[in-house]
């Protein structure tokens, strides 16, 4: 049986736990997942012994695996610490493993420059398989939600989206399909 292989780029920041959570969520969807967590030691970490970085990676990953160890016996997890450029090493590991998915965080979150100059952009360009980039939601929503519109959506279960004030034809073009339900082998409208 072939294992579904996921490569997870972990940078040991506060966002890494969220990236790991998304990767484990993807792994849980498969019968026999194989998860490879990788930390890449860059120039700024060269003074730190590779063993210390491996221990930090272990302390981050293993607690998240406890619930999965209780319920599944076909999981495989390996931890990798490599030296080099993160985008290159993540892509190389994924290629070496014939990975099905790469999961990375939106490193450079605080520097919204050209997307292909960031680590995720370079990983996306080099990735030999599907890639999930986990971003952080903005601290506050940039636009205010009309409470009346939200209530209309809730009350009509999504059949209508806007309140009377916001439904003027010249203001918004928005068509919503009826809810579809898959039931007993047939598509119901």
Task: Note the topology.
Layout: E1 4-9, H1 16-27, E2 33-41, H2 50-71, E3 76-83, H3 86-97, E4 101-105, H4 119-126, E5 130-134, H5 147-155, E6 181-183, E7 186-188
Parallel strand pairs: 1-2, 1-4, 2-3, 4-5
Antiparallel strand pairs: 6-7
Key descriptive features of the protein:
Rossmann fold; 2 domains; alpha/beta; about 190 residues; single chain; elongated; two-stranded antiparallel ribbon; five-stranded parallel sheet; 7 strands
Your description of this structure?
The model has no long low-confidence stretch (mean pLDDT 81). Helix 1 (16-27) runs parallel beside helix 2 (50-71). The strands form two sheets. The chain has a five-stranded parallel sheet with strand order 3-2-1-4-5, sandwiched between helices. Strands 6-7 form a two-stranded antiparallel ribbon. The radius of gyration is 22 Å and the shape is elongated. It is an alpha/beta fold. Strand 4 (101-105), helix 4 (119-126) and strand 5 (130-134) form a beta-alpha-beta unit. The protein has helices spanning 16-27, 50-71, 86-97, 119-126, 147-155, and strands at residues 4-9, 33-41, 76-83, 101-105, 130-134, 181-183, 186-188. It folds into two domains: 4-134, Rossmann fold, CATH 3.40.50.620; 147-188, no CATH class. The two termini are 39 Å apart. It contains five helices and seven strands.
